[in-house]
Amino acid sequence: MRASAPHKAELSRPLVDRAVRGALEEDLGLAGDITSQATLPADATARAVFRAREPGVVCGLELAAAAFRLIGPGLEFRASIADGEAVTPGQTIAAVAGNARLILGAERTALNFLNHLSGIATATHRFVEAVEGTGARITCTRKTTPGLRAFEKYAVRVGGGVNHRYGLDDAILIKDNHIAVAGGVAAAVEAARAFAGHLTAIEVEVTSLDELDAALGAGATAVLLDNMSPDELRAAVKHAGGAARLEASGGVTLETVRAVAETGVEFISTSAITLGAPPLDIGLDIEIGG
Question: Would you please indicate which residues are annotated as catalytic (active-site) residues?
Fold first, then answer.
């Protein structure tokens, strides 16, 4: 079983290597893994196996592999499954064999990425399952861990969700503070349309049907319906009549997301799948003499 969408999500290898190299440098410091140096012969070998300790969706195998590839030569990493596949407790995910000092030096870096991103993919998949059949799509926000946004958004796609904008520079999202300074919804959207290129999407956040009317009249590409109840969302969907793409946001939980989806909105955004996602429990067990 795969949780991801038909088109497989991918990561840039230079981006992966840069992030993993930085994480290894942070962990190894100036002297390297002095515990392994003190307790293990330099030529000791081992085989280590990644196993799931709880059910979930795996994500981050490419970063785990990079940790063992970048720490030194000679380690052999083999994944048993692919990102996006569901696992059960005790299931083998991957294995690495070679020099024991190198394996242990990269262990925590590999697990940190794998645990964290698998947690996001798992949380996303649960939200996606909760809205199945409604036509609504689960999307993330810019509420991500600093420095890890590309990987966390990748994990959302692996879990079956879709990405919102990556940053402030790839789409215009007019929020309440922009509206307050610009002098109203219509004024803000009209200014954005005059500024933006023809390929730049313009979304505006609204909290009422009157603001929705102003956004539609000014030509917004999409409208974010902020902190509306299911009844208010349903009325907004009917009122818009397909004139713009509608996104619901604000306080969405796994318990409430189905009711939000059934209102007819096209997108539901939530930070619960990124900042609120607990890590998936994956362990690394050493087998001596591998």
Answer: 108, 143, 175, 205, 226
